[in-house]
Design goal:
4 helices; alpha/beta; five-stranded mixed β-sheet; 5 strands
Length: 102
């Protein structure tokens, strides 16, 4: 499954109303650790169809990032039934991200 670009406009449909768990990656293009984490998130999206993977560019979607108190990036948040249930900060190994989703 491909990674979705999540914006304020599609957040409700793609995240809050999702029938599957959702992994959101809050990132920015200037962020070195975000660039390190991005291929891992992409790989997880391609290998799994049991959950949805989306990315939120904090520079373009500042209000959305602010609504979740994102103070540092990269930040990953897992949503289930429209609610944030797990969160991690910084670069994480693939295994740790998959564990967050289970």
């Amino acid at each position: 499954m491909k990674v979705l670009t999540i914006t304020a406009e599609n957040f409700e449909k793609e995240v809050l109303q999702a029938k599957k768990p959702v992994l959101l990656d809050f990132w920015a293009s200037w962020c070195g650790p975000c660039r390190m984490l991005s291929p891992v998130v992409d790989e997880i999206a391609e290998e799994n169809d049991t959950f949805i993977v989306g990315k939120v560019n904090v520079d373009e979607q500042g209000e959305l990032a602010q609504s979740f108190g994102i103070m540092s990036i990269p930040t990953l948040i897992v949503f289930r039934d429209g609610k944030p249930v797990r969160q991690s900060l910084g670069v994480q190994p693939k295994e740790a991200i998959l564990e967050m989703l289970n």
